[in-house]
Design brief:
Blueprint: H1 10-17, E1 39-44, E2 54-60, H2 80-97, E3 103-108, E4 111-114, E5 124-136, E6 141-151, E7 154-167
Length: 169
Amino acid sequence: MAEYPTSFDKDDLLKCARGELFGEGNAQLPAPPMLMMDRITDISGDGGKHGKGHVVAEFDIVPDLWFFDCHFPGNPIMPGCLGLDGLWQLTGFNLGWRGWQGRGYALGVGEVKLTGMVRPDRKKLTYYVDFTKAVQTRRLTMGVADGIVEADGEVIYQVKDMKVALSES
């Protein structure tokens, strides 16, 4: 395991987006506005429900977020795909946090359930990523995880079998 802290603030996440946290050519978060979290409050390589690693992160919801004006005019809702992307971002971040090399790529997701919405009156999203598998071999570096997104404590998104890989090419 690499020697990184177990929590990260917005400045740390922006360093990761610039490629400064895990090193050039390694796991990198997207820059705003596609960065879908404001802080990571806890991360591990051996915690979570399955003992294979986890991430907990938060995203502050404010009414002037970029997607509310366009999705949908007069009926503002955060696109569900952005919540899914946040979960993928955190899955890849965990792989980089482990010290594993390569750029992150979402490979897929087995199941997605959207049971609620994020409107401008919500205050905070909380992401929970629990790894079911984390593999690093000579040919493959990949994490498989389940995820939940809560809006102000209410479960609104659930995913199973998210897959993110790291590749050095």
